[in-house]
Design a protein that fits this description.
Blueprint (H helix, E strand, L loop, with lengths): L11 H14 L12 H8 L3 H14 L2 E4 L2 E5 L22 E2 L12 H14 L14 H15 L8 E4 L1 H15 L4 E6 L3 H9 L3 E8 L2 E2 L8 E4 L13 H9 L3 E5 L23 E6 L11 E4 L5 H10 L6 H12 L2 H23 L14 E5 L2 H13 L2 E2 L1 E2 L12 E5 L5 H17 L5
Parallel strand pairs: 3-13, 5-6, 5-8, 8-9, 9-10
Antiparallel strand pairs: 1-2, 4-11, 6-7, 10-11, 12-15, 14-15
The structure holds pyridoxal-5'-phosphate.
Length: about 450
């Protein structure tokens, strides 16, 4: 092993022991690693072998080293064992056999072959400059490719100079909130309910966060009083409704800065997708998207299309929060989109998720309220607050990972129920997850 020690010759035994302790504490001598033999270290440092032997013995007594008869001396591992690798199902230690978590795509559908081919093409052809620090706005190639893709697929009005790449939508939202704060906007409204992770991210960027109710037509725009607002207009998360056309117009007329979280716009099953709200007012709307639903959240690939006035402040804020994701992944995504592989993959996923949604809706008990439009990767099953409160314990009993609405709402009297994510399990596990869900529903009282 590399035995670098911050030690000055002539320092004596005590100094040598201090240097070895520091190397272990700072992780340069890693837990479990075999340490240099006393002979080799004594030779390297120009000290008597006996000095090293005594230092090792002292450090073994202190618990830094582990010695045992006939085996090499190692750095002790007590309390510093490597983290256990996740099982085949991923996400660390799995406590659940089945999952119906919203917000996650089927990890088994990740297009490994197409991604590998795209990465290989990128590595074969890209310039050496791709391995340097990248452009803080993200790769020009991906920004150009996304500009064309978003115009074609989502009707976004987009000039590549206004596209920036972020580490997922989450980092993009933080940067937008920080930039707005700098420009004097310190309150952001969110739909009530909406994903609480994003409320926390906005708060972390200095925004005061408030909720605005959602009804069957989406955000109740007349209740909006904040200078900025985040909306999931195409498919409200989690209620599943679409922002009605007259509300879209009313919203852009409020003059608020609108952040449009287009998190699952590619997944609409009954008819053509609702186009992006951004097209109505490109100078008022920040359009945000990500590859977290279409490909994988692990890629941390997200994008923003910004009003011109926000480009520089948002890029500055992105730089302060770590900058864009790895250039090679950005280029692989650009390659996948321009080769047609991305569209093919999204179509394949759309077919799969649509059939799961149909199976799920057909299996649900009759007489429930409509679960939102046929779109996205989740649906909301409304329940009374008292029934919702029983869900976590019952779901645990059936080893089903399941989300409820109440952690995501502002108004304690707002909607309640279960948010069923039908994409999260792998294809072979979907039947088991659905059975587990139906068993959970069966165990709930029927006054819901
Ligand atoms: C409403 C909503 N928006 C956006 C995202 C994507 O976030 P990110 O790109 O940070 O993974 C998610 C993912 O769960 C989501 O549920």
């Amino acid at each position: 092993m590399d035995a670098h020690l911050a030690w000055t010759p002539g320092g004596g035994r005590r100094e040598l022991a201090k240097a070895v302790r520091a190397a272990i504490r700072e992780g340069r001598w890693r837990p479990g690693a075999v340490v240099p033999s006393t002979r080799a270290l004594a030779h390297d440092l120009g000290v008597a072998r006996g000095t090293v032997t005594r230092v090792y013995a002292d450090l073994a007594a202190e618990g830094y080293l582990h010695t045992s008869q006939g085996a090499p001396t190692r750095v002790a591992t007590a309390g510093t064992e490597p983290l256990a690798a996740p099982g085949p199902a991923g996400r660390g230690e799995r406590r659940w056999r089945w999952t119906m978590m919203p917000g996650r795509p089927d990890p088994g559908l990740f297009p490994r072959t197409a991604w590998l081919a795209a990465t290989r093409r990128v590595l074969q052809h890209t310039a050496n400059s791709s391995f340097d620090y990248g452009d803080p706005r993200g790769s020009v190639v991906l920004r150009n490719t996304l500009a064309a893709y978003l115009a074609r697929s989502r009707g976004v009005r987009v000039d590549p100079a206004r596209v920036v790449i972020s580490s997922g939508y989450g980092q993009g939202l933080v940067a937008v909130c920080a930039a707005l704060r700098q420009l004097g906007i310190a309150e952001t409204a969110f739909e009530d309910p909406s994903v609480n992770r994003f409320h926390e991210l906005a708060e972390s960027a200095g925004q005061r966060v408030v909720g605005v109710p959602v009804d069957g037509d989406g955000l109740v725009v007349e209740r909006l009083a904040s200078p900025s607002v985040v909306v999931t207009a195409a498919h409200q998360s989690p209620t599943g409704v679409t922002l009605a056309p007259r509300r879209r117009t009313a919203l852009v007329r409020t003059g608020a800065v609108i952040v449009e979280d287009d998190y699952d716009g590619e997944f609409r099953y009954d008819r053509h997708q609702v186009g992006a709200l951004q097209a109505l007012a490109p100078e008022r709307v920040v359009y945000g998207g990500s590859a977290s639903k279409t490909l994988s959240p692990s890629l941390r690939l997200g994008w923003l299309v910004l009003p011109r006035s926000l480009v520089d402040p948002v890029v500055a804020a992105l730089t302060h929060t770590g900058g864009p994701p790895p250039t090679i992944n950005q280029l692989a995504l650009a390659d996948l989109i321009s080769s047609g592989g991305y569209d093919r993959h999204v179509r394949r996923c759309r077919t799969e998720y649509r059939s799961r949604r149909d199976r799920l809706v057909a299996a649900l008990p009759p007489g429930l309220p409509p679960p939102g439009i046929p779109a996205g990767l989740h649906l909301l099953l409304s329940l009374s607050p008292a029934t919702e409160a029983m869900v976590p314990a019952i779901a645990r009993r059936h080893s089903l990972e399941l989300a409820t609405v109440s952690p995501h709402r502002f108004d304690p009297d707002g909607p309640s129920g279960i948010v069923i994510g039908y994409a999260a399990s792998t294809r072979p596990a979907f039947g088991g997850a659905l059975d587990a869900l139906l068993a959970v529903l069966d165990d709930l009282p029927w006054d819901r």
